[in-house]
Design goal:
Blueprint: H1 25-40, H2 44-50, E1 55-64, E2 70-81, E3 87-94, H3 99-115, E4 122-128, H4 136-149, E5 159-163, H5 169-183, H6 204-222, E6 231-235, H7 239-250, E7 254-260, E8 263-266, H8 273-283, E9 293-295, E10 307-310, E11 329-331, H9 340-348, E12 352-354, H10 356-359, H11 362-376, H12 382-406, H13 411-430
Parallel strand pairs: 3-4, 3-5, 6-7, 6-10, 10-11, 11-12
Antiparallel strand pairs: 1-2, 2-4, 7-8, 8-9
Helix pairs in contact: 1-3, 1-13, 3-13, 4-5, 6-7, 6-11, 6-12, 11-12, 12-13
Bound molecules: glutamic acid.
Length: 434
């Protein structure tokens, strides 16, 4: 085990553009949790249980780099809560991963699975490394050694990872293979987000972006607006942002600005998203895309539009810029893009926020479908996957909206209330094992 070198109450990210040091992600999660717990009048015992992760594993990952030198990375897996089922949540590879971030993301996974009512608990994993500077071979060795380090928690009935920031189908294939080699037979339900050729689900890759599109469509309908001609700004052009933008465009929206970590492009006439996706396939990033005007990752958030989709990283909408957000709807494709302090400002401005645990729950919903298909050994068509995803997203949106009107709270608080009540109900039913 590595030394616990990460302080728990401070942000360790040195990257000032990403994290404005307003609050750390765990505090951001807790602020919302506390508010919902208060409104639900949550029992003090259950409150204490739900404020803490069940288990956190920190491992050292020694890896032989291509240079012949040994590098040691730190890997984390946090199992936040398993009362409703196996722990579920992605693994991210990023130089800014911290213990507090992983804990917050694991808690968010717990609430996310509960809000869409799929039978999973919540977990998250992270490896502190810079995957953009690493070769394929180095990434494979990191993945296999990390998998081995956390193998005691993994399993289709205990902890089921998936892709997240900077991880993908290939990483899940290595993880599944490492686990299968260790247990002596192929276990494809140990992870989701795998390549379709080895038990991945059709529609999984698009599922998070599709969920964003569906919840945005529901929000616009609720507000008496239409997808046709609605202007959309998307920050983050990875798996979530690019697909959300493409599907919203297919529904008639006009995508006026997109960005990735190299910066963004703004064109009031509209950007051809399919063309931009092709450009990124060929050039890796949006650098040099040259369609419309260049726009920074900060300025893109403040553009005039109907729908803003922050689909990159945490803490990009904070008390420092929330008053300048002009969108009518914010669809949180990323996990934790808005700080708790910024929530109030967005509310005061009358902005309708579809919170992360609802907006981006399409990914884990189709992960659930993948796990069901693996365990049943029977595979569904893409049409069936998409229909079932739509049903869950539309119903969940309606449930949250109903609760938000009933209690006169925003959609975020209503989502937390719904999910915390579901998780706490199971805790009550199961009781405390002594
Ligand atoms: N990483 C995704 C998320 O944050 C997907 C998790 C999963 O499918 O388990 O929701």
């Amino acid at each position: 085990m590595a030394d616990i070198l990460l302080p728990t109450n401070t942000i360790v990210h040195p990257d000032k553009d990403r994290f404005l040091h307003e609050e750390n992600p765990f505090e951001a999660m807790m602020a919302r949790f506390d508010r919902a717990a208060e409104l639900l009048d949550l029992e003090p015992g259950i409150y204490k249980v739900l404020r803490n992760p069940e288990k956190t594993i920190i491992v050292s990952i020694p890896v032989m780099m291509d240079s012949g030198e040994v590098e040691v990375f730190t890997g984390i897996r946090c199992i936040y809560n398993t009362s409703r089922g196996p722990a579920k949540g992605g693994i991210r590879f990023d130089k800014n991963v911290s213990l507090d971030e992983v804990k917050a993301l694991a808690a968010w996974m717990t609430w996310k699975c509960a809000v869409v009512n799929i039978p999973f608990g919540g977990a998250k994993g992270g490896v502190i490394c810079d995957p953009l500077q690493m070769s394929i071979g180095e990434l494979e060795r990191v993945t296999r050694r990390y998998t081995t380090g956390i193998i005691a928690t993994l399993g289709p009935d205990s902890d089921v990872p998936a892709p997240d920031v900077n991880t993908n189908e290939r990483v899940m294939a290595w993880l599944m293979d490492t686990y299968s080699m260790r247990v002596g037979h192929t276990v494809n339900a140990v992870t989701t987000g795998k390549p379709v050729a080895m038990g991945g689900s059709l529609g999984r890759r698009e599922a998070t972006g599709r969920g964003c599109m569906i919840t945005t469509r529901e929000a616009l309908t609720h507000l008496g607006m239409s997808m046709k001609g609605a202007t959309v700004v998307v920050q983050g052009f990875g798996n979530v942002g690019s697909i959300a933008a493409e599907l919203m465009q297919d529904e008639g929206c006009k995508v006026v600005a997109i960005s990735d970590r190299t910066g963004g492009w703004y064109s009031p006439k509209g950007i051809d998203v399919k063309h931009a996706i092709k450009y990124v396939e060929e050039n890796k990033t949006l650098e040099g895309y040259n369609v419309g005007e260049p726009v920074s990752n900060e300025a893109i958030l403040e553009l005039e539009c109907d729908v803003l989709v922050p689909a990159a990283l945490e803490n990009v909408i904070t008390t420092k810029n929330a008053s300048r957000i002009k969108a009518k709807v914010v669809c949180e494709g990323a996990n934790g893009p808005t700080s708790a302090g910024a929530d109030t400002i967005l509310d005061e401005k009358g902005i309708f926020v579809i919170p992360d645990i609802l907006a981006n729950a399409g990914g884990v919903t189709v992960s659930y479908f993948e796990w069901v298909q693996n365990r049943g050994g029977y595979y569904w068509s893409e049409q069936v996957v998409n229909e079932r995803l739509k049903e869950i997203m539309v119903n969940s949106f309606a449930e949250v909206l109903k609760l938000s009107r009933l209690h006169r709270v925003n959609m975020r608080t209503a989502s937390y209330m719904l999910s915390i009540s579901r998780v706490s109900m199971v805790h009550k039913l199961r009781g405390i094992y002594a």
